[in-house]
Amino acid sequence: APGAPLQPLRLPCSPSGSPAAPGPPLQPLRLPSSSRDFHLIYSLFKTCPGRVLCKLPCSGEKEVDLAVQSAKSAFKIWSQMSGMERCRVMLEAARIIREQREEIATMETINNGKSIFEARVDIDISWQCLEYYAGLAGSLAGEHIQLPGGSFGYTRREPLGVCVGIGAWNYPFQIACWKSGPALACGNAMVFKPSPFTPISVVRLAEIFTEAGVPKGLFNVVQGGAATGQFLCQHPDVAKISFTGSVPTGMKIMEMAAKGIKPVTLELGGKSPLIIFSDADLENAVKGALMANFLTQGEVCCNGTRVFVERKILDTFTKEVVKRTQKIKIGDPLLEDTRMGALINRPHLNRVQGFIKQAKEQGAEVLCGGDLYVPDDQKLKNGYYMRPCVLGNCKDDMTCVKEEIFGPVMAILPFDTEEEVVERANATKFGLAGGVFTRDIQKAHRVVAALKAGMCFINNYNVSPVELPFGGYKSSGFGRENGRAAIEYYSQLKTVCVEMGDVESVF
Ligand SMILES: NC(=O)C1=CN([C@@H]2O[C@H](COP(=O)(O)OP(=O)(O)OC[C@H]3O[C@@H](n4cnc5c(N)ncnc54)[C@H](O)[C@@H]3O)[C@@H](O)[C@H]2O)C=CC1
Ligand SMILES: C[N+](C)(C)CCCC(=O)O
């Protein structure tokens, strides 16, 4: 009922995989697997945001095994199809997503809390990803290598088998497409586990793949937290793990993969630098800084949260950034003009607020935001909203500058020279992204070449064309998603050596 205390999405097991506190008995599985169910969930959300949308039992060892076995059967069929045949099915999946963009974006907004405006962009990136890899599927090829005496060798690019995808909660649908796109194009099957905080939209993706014509079981979804993830990673029939999430979990995944000699892709956290030189186009630099910090309530791994500003323009830049940040429309994410929705859950909101409190204690100045936002709409008053925050007077050794906050908190740091800023920008355990704003093209390329980060932007930030590889250096992980590069991580190379003469034996 309106006004009742809001609850986070309740799942029968906690995100860490430990059993849930005793509560009402679990409901039978009620996945939002058809449009009809979807509308039911939607209407619940509209009247009571923050309330339970559905209850999903965690997949245990048995369900994980069933999912892997069914993916294995589908793999036999899919991997034997030609690239062009796979291309057609994937194009159909992309077409369905494009056609149902509005419905899926709405579902994603409900799933995650991000604005519908942004969710639409996520869905566009998702179908573009499938379309891109559909295109590549038909052109996957090996090499032909001439050897002496007419002998020759050739290489075949072969799929790995059943791949596992484990996703974070910030881009649920998009992460699933970034993983399944290249995986399926290469002829693999995939079992995907979304974050227990955002379990819904990936189920729709599985339905779409089926509607598009993939063999049944080729893309399976299992639900749950750490325990379910572990069953997946330790399953002997799983050939590869692609993980998006935090550094501590990434380490555990790598350990499990090591025990089974399984390749892994790790897309982990970041604390990326954005460098604004005084010769930059100020209007674009300010827009870039906002793009680098406030998409999806700041819950973006590659955000440029350390904004280094050349001292000459510090005041002008800061004033403008603060002015624009204060204008960001926060509130009901389903409203057309909302640009910042709700954070993922109460504990995360508290954590973000904790970082801001600590920043103040350590001497940073809150230039705007950082407090809770209470929408006028009574039904939303207990939602997990906060005002986007800009911190001034920051120093490199402050916690807010060193640790990933994963919320709408920008730290502004002045600098004086190029050499100094490059050194400070690289002084982090992370290396996911980095950006530079300047009109000097030599300086722009020199600085990005010196940045120890996998994804660098010049005069923009957080755009994500699917054609470009994405992934981290250092503790931000390894392996790449998007672009041709991802093919390397979802296929293996077989070399065939062909003798055209006689065997010259040494014996
Ligand atoms: N580099 C990238 O592309 C991205 C990185 N991230 C990072 O993810 C973090 C936030 O996402 P969270 O969902 O909170 O991360 P998380 O690491 O807590 O969870 C990620 C996924 O791993 C699963 N998981 C947890 N413990 C596991 C275990 N022991 N074995 C197998 N699976 C397990 C979770 O259920 C979830 O599906 C941030 O640090 C952020 O930087 C988020 C999005 C993109
Ligand atoms: C789409 N983009 C570039 C804003 C973010 C993608 C990485 C992530 O999943 O956090």
From TrEMBL:
**Descriptive protein name:** Aldehyde dehydrogenase 9 family member A1
Q: Which family does it belong to?
A: Belongs to the aldehyde dehydrogenase family.
- Gene symbol? ALDH9A1
Q: What span is annotated as the signal peptide, if there is one?
A: none
Instruction: Locate the region Disordered.
Output: 1-28
Residues annotated as catalytic: E267
Recite the UniProt keywords alphabetically. Answer: Cytoplasm, NAD, Oxidoreductase
The protein's predominant localisation is cytoplasm
Where is this protein found? Cytoplasm, Cytosol
Which one of the record's GO molecular function terms can you name?
A: 4-trimethylammoniobutyraldehyde dehydrogenase activity
Q: Where are the transmembrane segments?
A: none
